[in-house]
Amino acid sequence: MPAWDTKTKEWVRQGRLIVVGIAQEQHADRCRLFAQWRQLGWPILHDPINVMQVTGVPIEVAIDEYGIVRNLRPNPETLEQEFLDRTFTSDDASPAEGPREAARPDVAALRCLAERGGSYQAWRDLGDALALWAGPGGVDEAIHAYTQALHAKPDDGDAHFRLGVCYRTRYESEHPMPGDFQTAVDHWMAARSLQPDRYIWRRRIEQYGPRLTKPYPFYDWVQTAHREIRARGDQPVELKVWPTGSEMAGPVREWEAGPGAVKPPDPEGRISRDTQGLVLAEVTVVPSSVKPGEAVRVHLMLRPNDTRKACWSDEGEPLRVWVDLPPGWRAQPQLLVASQTERPDRSRPQRVELEIGTASDANGTSRLIAYALYHVREDADGTSRFLRQDIPITVTVGK
């Protein structure tokens, strides 16, 4: 996008060209931050569910004033001669192909159509309208609509991908449900297995996956953008969801050697278990299945149980996680220590990530056991307790 902005800026200023971008991106605010950082002078539309059904990006399309596509993948070096300097007429367009005014979908009418007829297309159209126009409050209904569409047509890759987007959206909302992130990954995996050539679908899995399969760091530019925008005297766009470690991480081409032998923090299991469920744990494995010898990235979220009025205690050491490994398996890191801020939010979930490499002879479903050690209070004024929680990690390996 920045290269096209530089090339077309003068044509836009002269009124000869209108440029509009469309981003297949989960987070609209990250699009706005990128545009602010690079000082892009044209609007960027948000297509989180890939309505355009593009198989790869970027793509460029030259459209004349009659709404007729004149060039796919135009060359910026010849755009002026081949497009801007040419005179087009509407003779090539039939009345049905002429420009149409875009209209916001009628969600109520789509809902009625889906509930009455129950067709696959009706449910998917309703899901699209809700995902794009209903905001965070419509995500539950969008999940229901796409689920109904898949009941009617289980091999619809688009519905799988869009359902995954909705589950991830709910996971990042104020009202997530247990398993939302893993369910999103599972649907993205289903979509990719149905149509492996879809670039957007593959990248969404790689965004949260291990470094060994990353093509590039997805959001390593975010911190630079914040710093340079502030240096200009501006306030950066505030991100509702800051990129995770996997989204910031760069690729590696081989398994990196660890720091050497590390010792488990509770080898004999002497630390008391969290039998009261003061802290709830959720595990997401990306991708949800791999071949022998490949790696997965494990996302572990631990949050105080608000029904028990639990909260983190700022006494003692930070959260630590250890994973026991079968022969031939490896982890990076095997002992993970969470970062600790000066004034941690006592009720906020703590998220940690590690990567696990499967054995070359692994096959089927393997159940690894990790455990977390943490200081927690049953309420803000309660006694601080140091507890352990055993956490199963399920990794599926297929030939």
Poorly predicted segments: none
Shape: globular
The CATH topology of the largest domain is Immunoglobulin-like
Instruction: Count up the helices.
Output: 11
Q: How would you characterize the largest beta sheet?
A: 6 strands, mixed
Mean pLDDT: 91
Roughly how much helix do the residues carry, as a percent range? Answer: 25-40%
The CATH superfamily of the largest domain is Immunoglobulins
List keywords for this structure.
about 400 residues, alpha+beta, Serine Threonine Protein Phosphatase 5, Tetratricopeptide repeat, Immunoglobulin-like, 3 domains, 6-stranded mixed beta sheet, 4-stranded antiparallel beta sheet, 11 helices, about 20% strand, globular
Description:
With 399 residues, the protein is an alpha+beta fold. The chain has three domains: 2-95, no CATH class; 108-208, Tetratricopeptide repeat domain (Serine Threonine Protein Phosphatase 5, Tetratricopeptide repeat); 255-397, Sandwich (Immunoglobulin-like). It is 31% helix and 20% strand. It has helices at residues 2-13, 28-38, 79-84, 107-117, 120-133, 139-152, 157-171, 180-194, 199-208, 221-231, 245-248; strands spanning 21-23, 44-46, 61-63, 69-72, 279-286, 289-290, 295-304, 311-312, 320-323, 330-332, 335-337, 350-357, 364-377, 384-397. Strands 6, 8, 9, 11, 13 and 14 form a six-stranded mixed beta sheet that branches. Strands 5-7-12-10 form a four-stranded antiparallel beta sheet. The two termini are 40 Å apart.
